[in-house]
Write a structure and sequence with these properties.
about 300 residues; mainly beta; four-stranded antiparallel sheet; 2 helices; 26 strands; about 50% strand
Length: about 300
């Protein structure tokens, strides 16, 4: 693999940048600022940023096949009409837990929207424990809860053959796997595939490459890890000039760049002075000789939500 170049490409700071998704049709990156309460689109062609404000903290965004986006905001699933600048409720969850909010989410290979919740943040990465759950919003708007007692529902993705679902509950400090039923969206046979070491930070968002390896952004660790989920071995560590790395996705030409979101919320003045790019979004280049995506594999990282 060639040398990886780390470049700050989106300099507009996010309190908690998250949920990056590459939109191939217009070469743009869509992402959220959770506590900044906005969904943004950055054009890699013009470097222009457009944003829509949300009413409550917004944990994730995915493109909707029929146009616009689906978000997990507060404790509701909602549609975003980008043209009309409007947000409409689809369904509510965790109604008995008003202090909860959605965190990370992603569309599965069949177009269902998986997203999880978490309890109130007392301070960054310190939460009311075991208050979250993992949900799926199906195309017919049916909401299914898979399990509860989650601390911080976070990174998720699917194996290239769609048979395995990968998942992170951040404060468990590990990446887990489930058997996945693509026909029903059901998960089973929960197991551990990687346990983080103490100096690696808190596992946050993640994505998968064309070799079936996972890339995990490590909050407070200032790095992304490349992990082989079959062997549980860390294959590579790429460090960034900021500590609060939050999530990642492949994008760009041939999907040969890795975009990494970051955060600055909770940092003191001294830390901000030492990490002036905290909250910006970075591009990691140099993957072209092994991780650029084929036409078949592109769907893995860019599939839209099929919601009606």
């Amino acid at each position: 693999m060639s040398s990886i170049k780390v470049e700050c490409v989106i300099k507009e700071k996010n309190e908690i940048g998250e949920s990056p998704v590459w939109e191939e049709r217009d070469s743009s990156l869509v992402y959220v600022d959770i506590s900044g309460q906005r969904v943004s689109r950055w054009s890699s062609l013009t470097s222009q940023i457009e944003s829509i404000a949300t009413e409550k903290p917004v944990g994730s965004v995915v493109p909707r096949q029929s146009g616009g986006y689906v978000i997990g905001e507060g404790t509701r699933f909602a549609f975003v009409d980008w043209g009309k600048r409007s947000i409409t409720t689809v369904a509510h969850v965790d109604k008995e837990k008003p202090n909860n909010r959605f965190n990370d989410g992603k569309a599965d290979p069949a177009g269902r929207f998986f997203a999880g919740t978490m309890g109130m943040e007392l301070q960054p990465a310190v939460v009311e424990r075991k208050q979250g759950s993992l949900y799926t919003l199906h195309p017919d708007h049916l909401v299914v809860k898979h399990f509860d007692e989650v601390d911080i529902s976070n990174g998720l993705d699917w194996s290239l053959d769609h048979r395995i679902f990968y998942y992170i509950d951040s404060l468990a400090f590990m990446v887990e796997a489930f058997d996945y039923n693509i026909q029903t969206g059901g998960i089973s046979n929960r197991r551990v595939v990687y346990r983080l070491e103490k100096d690696e930070g808190i596992p946050d968002g993640m994505c998968i490459d064309t070799e079936g390896k996972l890339w995990v952004a490590c909050y407070s660790g200032g790095r992304v890890l490349r992990i082989d989920p079959q062997t549980g071995v860390r294959l590579q560590t790429v460090k960034l000039p900021v500590k609060k790395t939050t999530s990642c996705c492949f994008g760009g030409k041939d999907y040969s760049d890795l975009y990494v979101t970051t955060a600055y919320k909770g940092m003191d003045e001294d830390s901000l002075a030492k990490q002036p790019e905290a909250g910006c979004i970075f591009k990691l280049g140099g993957f072209a000789d092994g991780l650029n995506l084929t036409e078949d594999a592109r769907y893995i990282v860019s599939h839209p939500c099929q919601l009606l």
